[in-house]
Specification:
Two copies of one chain form a homodimer.
Chain A: H1 15-22, E1 29-30, H2 43-61, H3 71-83, E2 93-96, H4 98-110, E3 116-121, H5 125-132, E4 137-144, E5 147-148, H6 150-159, E6 163-168, H7 182-194, E7 198-202, E8 227-232, E9 244-247, H8 250-264, H9 269-281, H10 284-309, E10 315-316, E11 324-328, H11 335-344, E12 347-348, E13 350-351, E14 364-368, H12 374-396
Parallel strand pairs in A: 1-12, 3-4, 3-6, 6-7, 7-8
Antiparallel strand pairs in A: 2-9, 4-5, 8-9, 10-11, 11-14, 13-14
């Protein structure tokens, strides 16, 4: 008998995390992480609210508090959900340690070994890792520019009666940057209702839109309470606080609360109060507008440089928001091998393979544009372009 | 097929949590929680370090950071572990969201459904809840004043070849207040080595000793790397930060790091830096001495009042440290029913039944003395004494 549980045989370290270790090299320009720009963190406001919370409510901020979370913060989240056109109440909000914890809990609540998770192809690596610890299997559904292809999704549901939920990132998906159309969102709800399936809607980037019109959250179209919405302040405020949330109907949310209690009792009292005080006193929308203005410039510059420097065989998405551009290269390119050369040339990206839970896709990469300044985007994409052109040179001879 | 995973059928809300809701009644004196005294939180120091961290390292404090945790904090913990006579390095420390998360991860890493957890009888409710989510079974081992009875423990191990670990709180146990002797600690290591079992040593209260001499942590006696030590700052600093840790040998700690990454990526960057700055600048030992001086008075007063007010048939432990006194009443007393009467009389405790994962023990209760001031301890124990005497009156007639 192994000393460890069965699940430990299937869990491996995140490749991205291993890659991020490589990117500590001096002078290396990294498009590998998914980090927000630290120069935009609201430090002065944070200093003010932190002082205020400790001064006025220190004893409560340092004490144990409820599993569900700080009620005024949950009410602020109700307000943010209304921007996604979701009507809800604080009683349907649970505070989590970032939305990663919401992903873990979703696995814990719904998945038995060999249950099926239906996801987009590619899908978010952090979700794949979280669900994997519950020994599930994945069925990837092909997407086009409007979301999952609905005929393939329905066939996948029919073929997999032990499918438990459909996991999607409908806005500026990580890693593809793609966004679901309103039609597809509506069709998804119809299918989930027809087959009595849960939808896990993971939306960390929805408020970071640089062009086009905002679309209602899938949760806002939910007619039977089948959608679990995961949100976070990591991309709109700061990830270091570890504040995310789950929004779900009563029966389902109660399961998340029970699991939260058994997992770590509660999210940090002081961080919840500080964020809530920030939302009382400052306008997060104004802050988000500032993020958008900076990130839009970086996205535009990266796309422009890719257009100029990348070989014509490289295809890539043009995301309307979020943090990522997704690149598809000719099939002979192995981006894992390319990454080694790239690091030698002081530029880094994430090879796309890890985002496919089942297939062994080697010719894709994810580029992040939020965490590097304009100068570095300029230089870094040039470096990457040179490398890609070299790789594809034999073909062009 | 159920919409939820199998594990959800066995999980129920913590009874303590439900009880704590009752104790919000005005004028009610509660010995039910396990909360530290908020009037002793180091608020001024917290205000100073919080300002310093945001001012000097704000961008790093609000950004994502490593899964393992903030290295200077891990080094501070190495220093604290040395007070428990454990020699370790920062590389063997993982920061968790309180030690409750360490409990959850222990279940996740070691337990498959129907695996056996060997625990003290009674055992800590939070651990029982955490392990339960991995569908394990429990074998309770009787304790005396020196720890588990070793002959019973060995027979339990022999009878349960699928036992995965032995879970213990060796110092001032929650709920019993009991402490393991040095001999028993050594015998435990010998048995664990003999049968190749993991020991989960949960030690939230070890530094809160009011009399007698400190004993080395079980981890300090570990010769083959079989002990996983769970620590926390919740009782010595403040629970609202949610900072605990796991200390284990390389191979095992790596499993905890993988699970941490999949569960919530990392513990709050800012809280880790604030606590680390506090430990740089202030003397936690001086603070702990202050806690000890206050808690010792409360313990002594509670024991004194129990001696004066409780009927002679009530037996109770005299803990040398920690937060709890454990009461055993005559068998005809059902403390769940008693609790309803107690709340009507504006005093509360935790009925002991929940601390026994298998048996249906109704005649016990746990009393907390850290969270109520002297006046309330005086009045509250009197109220409880009157109630207990009434309950036992028919017997005395």
């Amino acid at each position: 008998m192994s000393r460890y549980s069965e699940r430990m045989t299937t869990i491996k370290a995140s490749e991205i995390r291993e890659i991020l270790k490589l990117t500590q090299i001096e002078g290396l320009i990294s498009f590998a992480g998914g980090l927000p720009a630290p120069e935009l963190f609201p430090l002065e406001a944070m200093e003010a609210v932190s002082k205020e919370v400790i001064h006025n409510d220190g004893k409560l901020a340092l004490q144990y508090s409820t599993t569900e979370g700080f009620k005024p913060l949950r009410n602020h989240i109700v307000n943010r959900m209304s921007k996604m056109q979701v009507k809800t109440t604080y009683e349907n909000i649970l505070i989590t340690n970032g939305s990663q914890q919401g992903l873990d809990f979703s696995g814990k609540i719904f998945l038995d070994p060999d249950d099926i998770v239906i996801c987009e192809s590619p899908s978010y690596l952090g979700a794949i890792n979280a669900f994997n610890t519950y020994q599930c299997q994945f069925r990837e559904v092909e997407t086009d520019d409007y979301g999952m292809k609905m005929d393939i999704l329905e066939q996948t549901i029919i073929d997999n009666p032990n499918a438990k939920f459909i996991y999607i990132v409908p806005d500026f998906q990580n890693p593809s940057g793609k966004t679901w159309s309103l039609n597809r969102r509506e069709e998804l709800i119809t299918l989930a209702n027809k087959y009595d399936l849960i939808i896990i809607e993971d939306n960390p980037y929805g408020e970071l839109r640089y062009e086009g019109e905002s679309l209602p959250a899938v949760k806002s179209l939910d007619t039977k309470g089948c959608v679990v919405y995961l949100g976070t302040f990591s991309k709109t405020f700061a990830p270091g606080l570890r504040i995310g949330w789950v929004c779900a109907e009563d029966e389902i949310l109660n399961k998340y609360i029970l699991i939260k209690q058994a997992s770590d009792l509660q999210t940090s009292s002081i961080n919840q109060r500080e964020l809530s005080a920030y939302l009382d006193k400052y306008d997060l929308d104004t802050h988000i507008k500032k993020l958008i203005s900076v990130y839009k410039v970086r996205r535009d510059l990266m796309l422009d440089m890719m257009h100029k420097s990348f070989p014509k065989q490289a295809k890539y998405t043009v995301p309307e928001g979020g943090l990522f551009i997704w690149v598809e290269l000719p099939e002979q390119i192995d981006t894992n091998a390319l990454m080694v050369k790239a690091v030698k040339n002081k530029v880094a990206f994430v090879p796309g393979g890890s985002f496919f839970p089942n297939s062994d896709t080697k010719n894709t990469m994810r580029l992040n544009f939020s965490n590097m300044n304009e100068k570095n985007i300029l230089i870094g994409i040039k470096r990457l372009g040179i490398l890609l052109n070299e790789e594809l040179l034999p073909e062009r001879k």
